[in-house]
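Lab notebook page, bench 4
Experiment: in silico fold of construct C2
Operator: M.H.
Input chain length: 183 residues
Purpose: comparison with the prior construct
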Amino acid sequence: MIRWFVMIFTGVVLGGIVHLVTILYLPRTASVDAYARIAPIAPVNAMTPLPQPTPEKALMPFMDPAFAGAVCRYDLSAGPMKLTAPVSQAYTSVSFYTRYGVPYYAINDRAAGRRVIELDLMTPAQHAQVPEDEEVTAADRLIVESPTLTGLILVRALAPEPSLMAMAQRAVAGATCAIQPNP
């Protein structure tokens, strides 16, 4: 009896380990992830407006047609990046994702408290090299640390009514992302 219990327990533990490893490794094996789908339309380190989704065709799953969007594929190997996104009248958000789609930071217009969301994106090693300036406070300069060298930045603006979609598209069209020149 104990022998059967040990065999069943071992099988359940082994099955659980295989299940967890498979679930955690599966996103890295996907060949057509969000980064790969956006790569043909978005150059690296430049903001690109996303096409409006339709029921038949959407660039990414679960895109909301009430939002205008723009995406920036970034590569921080050349240095830190500066992101600027104007705030729309309704709602604006900026989300950061790693190369494999793991979200690591997000901010919206209400949290930013300004008419323009401005921030610096850099790796922890690049952040360690930034000189400390007593005149610049943390509230003046928002720094986001990326866990990876490559990833995606998604800027979205809400159009509360279909007639306001042009306003939302202008807001995301004004967003920029570019590598900062070395001082």
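Observations: The chain has two domains: 1-30, 34-179. The domain at 34-179 is CATH 2.60.40 (Immunoglobulin-like).
Next step: discuss at group meeting.
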